[in-house]
Amino acid sequence: MTDLSSLQQQLRDLAAERDAVILAHNYQRPEVQDAADHVGDSLELARKAAATEASTILFCGVHFMAETAKLLSPDKTVPMADMVTAPALRRLKAEHPEALVVAYVNTSADVKAEVDVCCTSANAPEIVGRIPADQPIIFVPDRNLGDWVAQVTGRDNMIMWPGYCPVHEEMRVDEVRAVIDAHPGAVLMAHPECNREVRELAEVITSTSGMLRYPATSDAGAFVVATETGLLHRLHAMYPDREFFPAARGAVCPNMKRTTLEKAIEALDEGANEITLPPKIAERALASVQRMVQ
Ligand code: CIZ
């Protein structure tokens, strides 16, 4: 059986041969994260994709994230969420013609083509905070992230799309409380995609990049982490003297975990799953991503 380190070496050698940069999301399998050139959240990876000089971007994440990389680097080869669709969003926009549409980047390119500006969980309050307070907003697709943004910005004019991330939505407050009780003194960090009950237990509500920074600012020796469990790999590596516990053992995203080292090698070697976008969609979708990046 091929061991993980020889697969990682094979992937890195192939990437060097093909002039490829390997980007991996914080929720990827540990062995995939360790083989990547850059690991981060969708905003950080979008910025790496826009800045890279490599001719190929191997994106280890989910489809919409690779599409965002392709939008920002259209001349690059990008081998490789459907809570909201473009026609359904068009119908809601027709009902609220006065509203501006803000979309979490966790949406497909054809949805992004319908929106005014994108955001990630790392910058959603800032993006929404820059929109005049009396301007109604349609927020898609994650109602929990939208609810948190409305709380933080004090807005009462956000029309929430009823979508959610099952991994975060389904975390139960009693399970999270039991994990906190089992580790007295531990600080709960919760992702804004968590439901409000779980968020209300948290000392800090932040994106994955925020969770990676937070322990450096805290004296706590232990943290309970309410997000996809892939993040614990980086937390353990960055803070070997602290303890980290998943808030819910079931918080595992099956889509993120579909990327294995074998599949990453195959994608790069055979050009499988290459991302292509219709030019008209790409042009409109890029505008909403660029507004965010700016
Ligand atoms: O924006 C991302 O990368 C996601 C999905 C979560 C986060 O907080 O980083």
Question: Which key phrases capture this entry?
Answer:
Rossmann fold, 3 domains, 44% helix, binds (~{Z})-2-methylbut-2-enedioic acid, flat, alpha/beta, four-stranded parallel beta sheet, 294 residues
Explain what this protein looks like in three dimensions.
This protein is an alpha/beta fold. It folds into three domains: 4-80 and 256-277, NadA-like (Rossmann fold, 3-Layer(aba) Sandwich), CATH 3.40.50.10800; 86-164, 3-Layer(aba) Sandwich (Rossmann fold), CATH 3.40.50.10800; 171-246, Rossmann fold, CATH 3.40.50.10800. It is built from 15 helices and eleven strands. The protein has helices at residues 4-17, 30-35, 42-51, 63-72, 86-95, 109-112, 124-129, 143-153, 166-169, 173-182, 196-201, 208-213, 231-238, 261-270, 279-293; strands spanning 20-25, 38-40, 56-60, 100-104, 117-119, 137-140, 158-160, 187-190, 204-205, 222-226, 243-246. Strands 5-4-6-7 form a four-stranded parallel sheet. A four-stranded parallel sheet has the order 9-8-10-11, with helices on both faces. Strands 2-1-3 form a three-stranded parallel sheet, with helices on both faces. Helix 11 links the parallel strand 8 (187-190) and strand 9 (204-205). Helix 1 runs parallel beside helix 14 and helix 3 (42-51) runs parallel beside helix 4. The longest helix is centred in the C-terminal third of the chain and has 15 residues, at 279-293. The N and C termini lie far apart (47 Å). The mean pLDDT is 93. Bound molecules: (~{Z})-2-methylbut-2-enedioic acid (CIZ). (~{Z})-2-methylbut-2-enedioic acid binds at residues 26, 41-42, 106, 120-121, 191, 207-209. Residues 26, 41-42, 106, 120-121, 191, 207-209 line the site of (~{Z})-2-methylbut-2-enedioic acid.
